[in-house]
Amino acid sequence: MSTLATETRVGRVWKGREGDVIRWAAASWKCESLVPQNEACGIDVIFHRDGELGAVAEIKCRDRTLEKIHEYPTYMIEEGKLGVGMAFGQELGVPFYLLVQLSDGHVLIWHISDKDGRQLVPWKHDLRCVPATHAGGRAVKEMAYLPIENAKCQHVPEFQS
To answer: Class of the 5-160 domain?
Structure first.
């Protein structure tokens, strides 16, 4: 049986950083968060307030600065993650967001789809050989390239490495 990336030491560190982003987002948006315990769910968090669902999100943490991110016009992510998040949001009737924490204290936020699952951010895609997991290996995956200009950027000093 293979080890999940989140079961490795490095994977646990990254999941801890994701938890920090989730807590920050919940406080910023004045809501609460629910993190699904089953990774097969396909999303990282559900945000809710006063018993009403508000949004679902994919959370990423990258060891890159905003300056480094801006060396490219797009942010690369597995397209399947976007599709799952959009479908999940549509099923629940809430929008889907992608939040990417950077090492210099910035968080990039893309509003990927609305509550009806309509895509709000255009992206290009292709097949690419990428790392399979934090634990290693290679895999060919369909990758999406989100325009950096479509992201809202917030500086969160406590996230600076």
So the answer is: alpha beta
Strands 152-160 vs 104-113: parallel, antiparallel or unpaired: antiparallel
pLDDT in tens, 100-138: 999 999 999 999 999 999 999 999 999 988 887 766 788
